[in-house]
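Task card 7
Instruction: Convert sequence to structure tokens.
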Amino acid sequence: MPKLIWDETGKRFYETGTRQGVLYPQDANGAYPLGVAWNGLQAVTESPSGAEANPIYADDIKYLNLVSIEELGATLDAYTYPDEFAVCDGSAELATGVVIGQQKRHAFGLCYRTVLGNDLEEGDYGYKLHLIYGAMAAPSEKGYSSINDSPDAITFSWEITTTPVSVPGFKPTASLTIDSTKVDAVKLADLEGILYGTETAPARLPLPAEIADLFAEG
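Output:
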């Protein structure tokens, strides 16, 4: 067995950034048929919860641990959002340019990209695609203030919860990640053509089963 070596050249990895956000409103069939670019997406903070141990005691000993279901929550921060997000944020249009709030909120999917770097190639090493399914946005605080000598743009923020989708052979999930440094480049390009759209097909969010088929061996 080879001796362990730390901090080898080319293996000092890191992950950073949030870019190329895409919003996919969910339709009545649970699919995500049409994606739109989310300009101004500043940050996505994923916050898993659950997966907590609940100890069971018997015969005066700790008999076993029952682990609670894990859930995915997140916080979205953005300087702006696409018009298609309005229904996800509980808004409805009475007439062109006339919007009311406190309406039914629609579920949506999300895709965003982070940068993978190392000590040799820096931010050109690779990237990860992050997909989120079954998201619901909670009402958000919107703070408006006077322009002063240190002006700044308003930041919108939403807390989201998720409902997992089915994954053949696995437990349901609300998140999926693709690492560009570990998958086939041609298949990754095919997936990005689905996620971002092409000249002949609109952007859409495929479910995990379709992605599994796309990256299957052989």
